[in-house]
């Protein structure tokens, strides 16, 4: 993984926006190598970490953004779409509206489906039918989870139902009126689905993420830290502020690599 340490969440948002806008601009000339699909497909995440990315893209909006398709990482099971903390609502507020996307091209797992297993299979199929994810935005939880892939998730897993750990429910309780309102179950893209994305940007800020970041980036490859699966990805970049990078041991090396990138990587 390429590790980039930046001074603020705003600079992280701008760096990520540069990568995304470059990909959007290049898509018409390249298409999807094996599918012929021309739309850029962005994998979007909720939570506080990715918000600076969407804010930066809103500030730097270009008409080409309106043509992209988007797939959300996950959704709570059993939470009505109209609930302000359902990811249908969050994605609509923070992504679709900000980036002026066509709502018909923005997809979120159907956590209110009568048949949730069938809904998971349909979501996985929809990603494949769109030509796959060009760039997946990720955050990371305190347990090392990405998406809602909790510890012990299989690295080959696909979109499915998961039970949220008590730690994840406590972390997400800040978005609800009380901890008891946080759903017990979710739908999430699997680690295998995430690893299929052509490019991955993982964003983490703040000292509370430092231990999970260190385990994912420098620790062993283990299902107990699902984020460590990104060590297997051929094009994963980790964007950190100083606090989130505090427990890494190779920070001087990461800065050296970033400062000495070849011109084509800038």
UniProtKB/TrEMBL annotation:
Keywords: Carbohydrate metabolism, Hydrolase. SUPFAM superfamilies: NagB/RpiA/CoA transferase-like (SSF100950). It comes from the Bacteria. Gene3D superfamilies: 3.40.50.1360. InterPro entries: Glc/Gal-6P_isomerase, Glucosamine6P_isomerase, NagB/RpiA_transferase-like. The keyword Hydrolase applies. Residues 39-231 form the Glucosamine/galactosamine-6-phosphate isomerase domain. The keyword Oxidoreductase does not apply. It holds the Pfam family Glucosamine_iso. This is Glucosamine/galactosamine-6-phosphate isomerase domain-containing protein. It comes from Agreia bicolorata.
């Amino acid at each position: 993984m390429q590790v980039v340490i930046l001074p603020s969440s705003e600079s992280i948002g701008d760096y990520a926006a540069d990568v995304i806008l470059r990909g959007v601009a290049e898509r018409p000339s390249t298409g999807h190598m094996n599918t012929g699909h021309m739309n850029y497909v962005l994998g979007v995440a909720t939570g506080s970490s990715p918000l600076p990315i969407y804010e930066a893209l809103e500030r730097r909006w270009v008409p080409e953004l309106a043509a992209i398709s988007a797939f959300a990482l996950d959704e709570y099971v059993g939470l009505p779409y109209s609930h302000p903390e359902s990811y249908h609502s969050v994605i609509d507020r923070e992504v679709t509206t900000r980036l002026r996307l066509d709502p018909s091209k923005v997809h979120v797992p159907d956590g209110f489906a009568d048949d949730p297993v069938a809904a998971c299979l349909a979501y996985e199929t929809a990603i494949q039918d769109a030509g796959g994810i060009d760039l997946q935005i990720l955050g990371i939880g305190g347990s090392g989870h990405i998406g809602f892939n909790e510890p012990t998730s299989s690295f080959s897993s696909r979109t499915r139902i998961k039970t949220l750990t008590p730690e994840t429910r406590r972390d997400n309780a800040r978005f609800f009126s009380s901890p008891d309102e946080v759903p017990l179950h979710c739908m999430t893209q699997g680690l295998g689905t995430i690893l299929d994305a052509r490019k991955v940007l993982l964003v983490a800020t703040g000292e509370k993420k430092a231990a999970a970041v260190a385990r994912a980036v420098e620790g062993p490859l283990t299902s107990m830290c699902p984020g460590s699966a990104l060590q297997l990805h051929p094009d994963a970049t980790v964007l950190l502020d100083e606090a989130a990078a505090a427990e890494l041991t190779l920070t001087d090396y990461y800065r050296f690599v970033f400062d000495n990138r070849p011109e084509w990587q800038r």
